[in-house]
Write a structure and sequence with these properties.
Blueprint lengths: L9 H8 L3 H7 L6 H7 L7 H11 L3 H4 L1 H23 L6 H13 L14
Helix pairs in contact: 2-3, 6-7
């Protein structure tokens, strides 16, 4: 079952922290809490700079703070990687760089498993 996540969880994390929209706005270097309000209401998407500031403030990864957006971007990137992979596989080059590109796309598309790290305890 696919769980649809909210576009972002900024309001949740802000309220847990006890900080106001004005406080967060100040930490972001903004003049008023209006931008933060727009982010929380999904009216506006924050810049990458703001997303990093939210990571620092809330001590959470941006992919957790913006879970719905991350989920959407994750799915669309995998879909595009699969499309690009199919297109490039038709060219069938043997060049090592071309093969590396295909392998990276297979990994992004989830068509290969990454090898687990070697354990040094034997």
């Amino acid at each position: 079952m696919c769980v649809h996540k909210l576009q972002n969880y900024l309001r949740t994390f802000r309220r847990r922290s006890g900080l106001s929209q004005q406080d967060i706005s100040y930490l972001c270097g903004c003049q008023s809490g209006n931008k933060v309000s727009r982010y929380e209401r999904f009216v506006r998407e924050p810049s990458l700079r703001a997303a990093f500031i939210f990571e620092v403030v809330f001590k959470e990864h941006a992919s957790d703070l913006f879970a719905g957006t991350f989920q959407e971007m994750h799915k669309s990137t995998i879909r595009r990687a699969r499309f690009l992979l199919r297109r490039l596989e038709r060219k069938a080059g043997s060049d090592p760089q071309f093969q590396q590109k295909l392998e990276v796309l297979r990994e992004i598309a989830g068509l290969t498993r990454r090898e687990p790290p070697c354990s040094s305890s034997q």
